Amino acid sequence: MDKSIYDLIIIGGGPIGLACGIEAKKAGLKYCILEKGALVNSIFHYPVNMTFFSTSEKLEIGGVPFVSNNVKPLRNEALEYYRRIVTTFYLNIHLFEKVVGIKKIQDIFEISTTKKKYLSSNIVLATGFYDFPYLLNVKGEELSKVKHYYDNPHFYAFQKVVVVGAANSAVDAALETWRKGATVTMVVRGEKISDRVKYWVRPDIENRIAEGAIKVYFHSDIKEIREHEVDIQTENGIVTIENDWVLAMTGYQPNIDFLKNLGIELSNDHVYKPTYNEESHETNVPGIYLAGVVCGGMNTHRLFIENSREQAPKIIEDIAKKISTN
Fold first, then answer.
1. How far apart are CA 286 and CA 79, in angstroms?
2. Which of 88, 24, 76 lies closest to 47, judged by CA?
3. Is residue 215 within 8 Å of 234, Cβ to Cβ?
4. Of 9, 45, 116, 148, which has the fewest CB atoms closer than 10 Å, so is most exposed?
5. C-beta of residue 44 within 8 angstroms of C-beta of residue 37
């Protein structure tokens, strides 16, 4: 066990966790960032060719300019930028160290990880939402051909690919794999491609659908997945097509059970929005703060880097104030 007592432990090494670390260091607080995977793990797992919706200046943290060669920065540029953030501020971050348990002993939190235990007066949860995909809950989803994360389009070259979903991830997967020679079929529960699809991509996918290059079934769901086939429940009955891979781009959700187990109160609806002070971001559990997309519960599409980074100064200011008065 690390027997020293930290002022705060930040759980999550994404952009908002790093922003909290920067503010903590500026305030002279003893802190540590714990990240279960690679640095900015969610961004690392984005598709290799992904282009951000935001401009580079909206992704900046700590006052460090994000210089991009493109109007909209690419995934690899973001990875390079956030690596530079860590070295610029000499942030105290421990990677590939997953938090497996938290308990409170009087006024101190004991945080257990896969490597050791830490003691801290405060905790900042900046855990994001990329670890728990929405499942299809159909027979055959357990097959290895079903992927809830999409990475490199080359892997699917000349394969028969079903893409489930209609938002940015699904559209990117459909277009990129199609361009590598895949036969692509989209399965969309609604009546159209999502309104949230990046404006410069929408005409591309709509034109590919219109010309028949990419087949799409609207008002449809996956019924069953087999080794070489997929059953699609359409408006006109079940359609069976040959298939090699299913990319279920159905979105992701925060670890709601983790929040519940910490005693954080959640809204009594399907959103499960955590209870926290809008100014300080402290939850109903004294000493536990929320930062980033986790603040929105299941409404993960409302919070982004650009409208979450401002939370870091508020959180650290409140923690520093408490410490100075004790």
1. 34
2. 76
3. no
4. 116
5. yes
